[in-house]
Amino acid sequence: RSPSRGLGDVYKRQSMRCPARPTRGIKGPEAAYSGAACAWAAKVTGHLIDDLSATKVAIEEPIPAIQLAGVTTDRTLHMAAVLFGACAAAAHVRDLPVWGIPQTTWRKFIGVPRPPSKSSSEARTAHYKAHAYNICRLFGHKASTHDEAEASLIAIYLAAQLNPSISAATMPLMTGGTSK
């Protein structure tokens, strides 16, 4: 079930935006901002876990820095790792199993095609967003944001990993682009 529907004010878009802001003039990772964003992410994740009575947590892993050389900043990579850690910590303190899911793994399994090589970073992002929306629609889920669409597909990926019979029997799109 989608956390953005019917679970209270904490999940409305306005409150899902991190209130922490980086200090002006600091270009690299900043401890105060990192700590505030980490605390916020752990709090929101904890609310989601508790409200949904979650028994498992799947988190998309940050892309390794080596794959993003020249595409993004150290600060962005740092914050992705901070938020990943905060979400994992919220699950850990509740004794829940946590799965880190690499982007390329779930996308290939779900059937999201790779963008054309030589695409710009913006074009690749738009490609992945559009395909996430479309695949969700094929499953009958109308995601309200690309993040919700991708989260839904990550959940489907994890469900299929935990119960492989459902991927072959009830989700024919889950072939990763290959036929058997």
Q: Characteristics of this structure?
A:
180 residues, mainly alpha, two-stranded parallel ribbon, 6 helices, 51% helix, 4% strand, globular, disordered N terminus
Order of helices and strands: HEHEHHHH
Low-confidence stretches: 1-14, 174-180
Identify the strand order in the major beta sheet: 1-2
Mean pLDDT: 77
Number of helices: 6
Query: How helix-rich are the residues, as a percent range?
Result: 40-55%
Distance between the amino and carboxyl termini: 31 Å
The SS-based structural class is mainly alpha
Largest sheet properties = 2 strands, parallel
Strand segment count: 2
Task: Tell the overall outline.
Answer: globular
CA-based gyration radius:
17 Å
Strand-residue proportion: under 5%
Describe this structure in words.
The chain has 180 residues and is mainly alpha-helical. The chain has 6 helices and 2 strands, in the order αβαβαααα.
Short description:
It is built from six helices and two strands.
SSE inventory with pairings:
Layout: H1 31-52, E1 57-60, H2 74-92, E2 98-101, H3 103-110, H4 121-138, H5 146-162, H6 164-170
Parallel strand pairs: 1-2
Helix pairs in contact: 1-2, 3-5, 4-5, 5-6
